[in-house]
Amino acid sequence: MSLRSFFDPKSVAIIGASGTPGKGGYALIENMTKTDFKRKVYPINPKRREILGLKTYPKINKLPEVVDLAIIVINNEAVPQMIDECGSFGIKNVIIESGGFAEASERGKKLEKDVLRKARKFGMMVMGPNSIGIIDTSSGFSTPYVPIETVKKGRVAFVGQTGLLESVFIPLLRNIGVSKVVCMGNKCDVDECDVLEYIIDDSSTDIIAMYIEGIRDGRRFIKIIERSEKVLIVLKGGRTTYGARAVSSHTGTICGENRVYDALFEQYNIIPVKSFEELFDLVKVFISQPFPNGNCVGIITVTGAGGVTASDCCEDNGLEIASVSSRTLEKIREVYPTWHR
Amino acid sequence: MSLRSFFDPKSVAIIGASGTPGKGGYALIENMTKTDFKRKVYPINPKRREILGLKTYPKINKLPEVVDLAIIVINNEAVPQMIDECGSFGIKNVIIESGGFAEASERGKKLEKDVLRKARKFGMMVMGPNSIGIIDTSSGFSTPYVPIETVKKGRVAFVGQTGLLESVFIPLLRNIGVSKVVCMGNKCDVDECDVLEYIIDDSSTDIIAMYIEGIRDGRRFIKIIERSEKVLIVLKGGRTTYGARAVSSHTGTICGENRVYDALFEQYNIIPVKSFEELFDLVKVFISQPFPNGNCVGIITVTGAGGVTASDCCEDNGLEIASVSSRTLEKIREVYPTWHR
What we know:
The structure is a homodimer.
Chain A: H1 4-7, E1 11-15, H2 24-34, E2 40-44, E3 50-51, E4 54-55, E5 69-72, H3 79-89, E6 93-96, H4 106-122, E7 125-127, E8 133-136, E9 141-142, E10 153-160, H5 164-172, E11 178-183, H6 192-199, E12 207-212, H7 218-226, E13 231-236, H8 241-248, H9 258-267, E14 271-273, H10 276-288, E15 296-297, H11 304-316, E16 320-321, H12 326-335
Parallel strand pairs in A: 1-2, 1-5, 5-6, 6-7, 10-11, 10-12, 12-13, 13-14, 15-16
Antiparallel strand pairs in A: 3-4, 8-9, 8-11
Helix pairs in contact in A: 3-4, 6-7
């Protein structure tokens, strides 16, 4: 089962579509139709006849076709029933953007279980709940319910358990070209393995940057990573006791033991980072620099203190500083500012 | 012997003053006279009659008074002779901004020794060589030979063995208020202890941020620190083998053993940092935040992943996360965005 229909559906139903600017169900349609005209978008809304120029439908089963993907942005209590309606109509792929599930309360946990049970019954794949979905700059498809500026196209896929990636960071990072952004939310069904499996075969992606709070199926994760040739950088949230406690009220994920993750990352050449800043810094290095052939570094600087702190930093991080031949030195001298020769 | 005349001289001679915009000996006079009108500035230049409206003098011994401070920006080979001339005329304080001394070559090392020997003979204090001197926002005095924008007045003193502080970083950091900047250069005479001793008594300074490559007199340093009540943050350059090698061609300082510095910093509540970024980050914390009463932290956030990574970061750094009373929670809820309550 490929996630293809999540990244490039031919037809989409928006359940919870709104005609009111400022509402999530309005921004979602605006984002999706702003620059992307090649797919059918069906807003579901019993009270409106059209939204942003699109004809609306009162119920899923009134749609003229079985859509590739349904996106749900309605009240949490109404979601399980909606899964039934989608499943009965034959829909196989759903993104639940609504919150109020396992991340929120005991009641939410029960609702999420209901959703999953029903989805399984219909052989349906569910991303979320508490997910803002997908941005795919290759297909042009975009599902967030928060207003999104144009995203620069490039070779980096961001995969995370947080809407931050799509709603906050991506617009801030205009100099990073993006292939895909996936916000998995609570991962009741579609998880990091499903997404990775899809993205490691994506020819538009060279670098995968992930924020995860837990890996559900370690063995499967390893199998996927083993056949990947892409750079994988991972920010693991919930490495500590306090962090794990915060995770439980964020996505309800079980964090697992930190040393297991450390070992996994080391063994499979996954680059671990400790903050979003570091994640984005490393991404910038990988998109702007070639792979080094070794651990030898050259430092060219006009400032003494800069050379000193850079040297300390190299040694702190296991890098060696190259010895430069006199011929190279001579060449560098030619282009150096005269006051510093 | 106080450094008072380095920070607030009544009269200054500029040896190597230039009438050519773009030259160091021109920028120096421009910086010094731009906003500061209360001291006598005497450019020394045998070929010009005036520079930037100031009457020039052909030689030191033609000056109408024995100046509090002489600043030397001439060719390295000519410096020892100039020290003789200054000393013979009775000048007791000199900043040598010229480079080409111990940091550059064996010849430079010899020149620096000559300078020091001559200075000692006259009972003269020398800052540098290879120093761009002082910025003092209280007295308004400014000696760098590179063009300097207006520096924001504040409570932070920067002390370093690098001109970077004055020429690059300070103008970039518009939101940090500065009391003093001191670039000590090669420290052939005036060193970190002399400068610290002066600054710990400076009522306009609360925080001292230092870049040092070595401490010459550890015992004296400790004595000074023991009676200081200011915050001291130190970036020690040359902590590693590579770093120490880079230091030898920067200021020629002997770096000393890293674990000795670590112990010193820990014992005397000196805050060690590893990069200029960290130095400036910490300075910003100290000028913008009150001292905490303990290690307990509260995190208020609307983003789950932000709360998780902040929690991990707290535990990584030995901080505890506070338990919040239900009354406090209730109050926070009142001002929270409705979509997140």
